Every structure is written in structure tokens, then in C-alpha cells.
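Dear colleagues,

For the upcoming journal club I promised to circulate an example of a predicted protein-ligand complex. I picked one with EPZ because it came up in last month's discussion. The inputs are reproduced below in full, followed by the predicted structure.
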Amino acid sequence: MRKIIINGGRPLKGEVAVSGAKNSVVALIPAIILADDVVTLDGVPAISDVESLIDIMTLMGASVDHDGETLTIDPRGVKDIPMPYGKINSLRASYYFYGGLLGRFGQAVVGLPGGCDLGPRPIDLHLKAFEAMGASISYEGEAMRLSTKGQPLKGAHIYMDTVSVGATINTMIAASRAKGRTVIENAAREPEIIDVATLLNNMGAHIRGAGTDIITIEGVEKLHGTRHQVIPDRIEAGSYIAIAAAIGEGIKVTNVLYEHLESFISKLEEMGVRMTVDEDSIFVEKQDKLKAVSIKTSPYPGFATDLQQPITPLLLKAEGRGNIRDTIYEKRINHVAELARMGAHISVLGSQIIYDGPNDLTGAAVKATDLRAGAALVTAGLMAKGTTEISNIEFILRGYSDIIEKLRNLGADIKIIEGD
Ligand code: EPZ
């Protein structure tokens, strides 16, 4: 089992470039099933979720060429073969294959999705949308069969009871080639939704309103090929900005869209973090005194649930008491016990996390319990005195491309070893 080893306490300096957005590319790839021609994606991050999706697409019959950050996919050989398990269970985003296969073939037999343990992660809203569009649902062992029984998928008026990124995107994908108009009300507004809509529209779809809470899709018969640049990963960007504020002595984070991080940056400014924001980069100066703040996550454009864990080590450096409430995943707290092992004064109290600072962290053997918890432990390890050993690092490698190289370029003493 591989581990990350960090000798902490070293000041970091220099420049780090953010890669393409994981939560966009994991939807863009299955969406390409809808095309009747070749689609090329640029700015694809080097993360294991992309590798898993390439394996699944290839198994289904697509031909895929992966060259650095460029992914060229010809979906014309894709068959609607059952995909009951295997890589499908390795990531939550495999649910996008329901939308892609249903949109193209009117049928999908796909295993139930996997993903990080953040507490219950139902897909009822996805299924409610597919049923509204005429698909029936049955279960076959580990897999779920969605089928329109030979009828075309039809447009529908769908109200999302909960704001859901996945259900919004999945419905948009399936509706792109449905017969008629689909309206999604109470849609999620994340930038990744706009990115998927941009790809689909450039393939010939008619989607309006992506990024607002009402999205309208006029279904079309065919979708053609295109070339698309994946948007920067706002969660990776926020993770590096937190590292820069926690242990940096002047770090420039590049390939950042400020407008994707406004609530995050405003919280850092409230703490007293000094930053210079340019068009596509943020320079973070060395920090001395920081003020403890409280954080409540909410759907975009609110404070992202995916950033409450990566910002926590920085919060631990601040003076005073603060709390964190994740209104999207209340159980997204598994990093707290690991940080406490490093000497942090942090604990879970009911549905919130309470912390008291400032804290001097000490290196320890800790384990990543999910992707963003892992990012928090890397940051804590960089801040801590002594050596930190992080296990279960496959979680981290799912969402942070070239993280070891990027941090070493900033001066970090970090490496991956083959553990026992
Ligand atoms: C996406 O997950 C992201 N993953 C998550 O990022 C992110 O935390 C989440 O959106 C919220 O922003 C990907 O995009 C691959 P949701 P998703 O549907 O789509 C409930 C990371 O770290 N819900 O927006 O699965 C759900 O339980 C990952 O990169 C239903 O009740 O999240 C949650 O409480 C972790 N029924 C809320 O909605 C459904 O059918 C928001 O979930 C679907 C969701």
C-alpha cells in the first residue's frame, strides 16, 4: 500500500499551475457517448478517475487516444453493453454513464456508483428525472437497468427537490438527444455544469440557462464532434491557495478563475490572508497573524463543501475559536480525528466542527478517509514539525494531478513510498 511521507515545516515558495477540473471532466467523458463523431478534450487532468473512465469507455467500444492533457475519443463504436461492476464502482461519477447511454440508446445497464464515504449519497433525483423522461428502472444484481423499451426518451419538466450537481448534469446529458423540451428547475449552478453545457452545445445541443437555477434543453436528433478546453479545477486551486496561506512565503497559483472562488477568497480575506488577484492567477503572501472564522457550506456560489476540509489546516493556524458546518454532507468529518492526532484542537460537536487556535501541529501516521480529507492531511503535514505518513493515498491521487511534483517544485520535502 503506497504512502505519502512529508517532512514538514519547510517554507514553500514559487508557482503552481492548477489542472483541469475533475468534477467537469468526469461528466464530459461520458457525455461524449452522445456524439456521432470524434470529440477532443484539452486540459484533461492526470488523475486516476480519468484513467478509470477511459478504461470504461474503451470497454464499451470507444476508441480513445490519451496524449498528456489531450484526450481524443471516437464514440462511434460504443455499444450499450451491461457495465455491472469493476471500475464502475470505483467512482461516484460513473452515474453519468446512465445519462450518456440512455440519451444515445434509450437503455443503460450500469452498476451502482461508488465514490468517497461522505455519508449517504443517494441518486434518487437522477432516477426521478430519467423516469419523468420515460425510462423504467429495474435491478439486475449489482446493476440497475434503465430502459425506454424502444420508445424515444422524451423531454420533461423536472423540479429538483434538492440542489444536485450530479442530477442536474445527468439530466442535461440525457435530455440533449431526447424528443422535445426538458426544463430543469432548482438546478445546481456550479461552473462544471456550465462547462458540460458548453461541450454539449458545441456538439450541437440546444441548452440554455446553465449556471442559473432553470435550465432548458431542446432535444436534437444528432450531436457532432468538437474540441473543448476543460475549465480549471476550482477545488484544486482552493487547496493550493490554502497551502500557500498556511506555509507559503509567497506563492503564485496560476490557471485560476477568480469568479469560481469568490466565497472562498472572501473567507480568506476575513481571516486576514493577503492576496493579489490577477486575471488568471492569485499571489498569496506570507501570513503571520490570522483570525479564526466560521464556515457554512452551501451550493454554488456559496462556500464549496469540497473546500471545507482543505481549508481546515489553515484555520488551525488562526487565533481564536471557529466552527465549520457542512450543510451538504453533514458526515464529511472524517479528517477531524486525523488532524487531532497531529495535535490539533479540533472536534466534532453535533453537526458542526469546532476548532481553537493557534495550533502547532506535529507529524504523525494518519490516513486519508476521502479525497478532500486527504488534501487536508497533506497540508497539515507540510505545516507540521517532524514527519507525517499518510496512508490510503489512492483517494488523493483520484483528484489532485501531479500533487507530489507540484509540491516538490514549491520546496516541499514530500514523496510516495511503497508501504508494507
Ligand atoms: C458532486 O457530487 C461532486 N462530485 C462532489 O465533489 C461535490 O461535493 C458535490 O457535487 C457537491 O458540490 C462530482 O462532481 C463527481 P450532489 P454529487 O448531487 O453530484 C443529495 C469531490 O470531492 N442528493 O450535488 O454526487 C446528496 O446526498 C466530490 O470532488 C440526493 O439527495 O453531489 C447531497 O446531500 C465529493 N439525491 C446533495 O444532494 C440525489 O439523487 C448534493 O449532492 C443526488 C444528490
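Two points we might discuss: The pocket of EPZ is lined by residues 22-23, 26, 92-93, 116, 120-126, 162, 164-167, 188, 235, 305-306, 328-329, 371-372, 399 (CB under 6 Å). The chain has a mean pLDDT of 95.

See you all on Thursday,
B. R.
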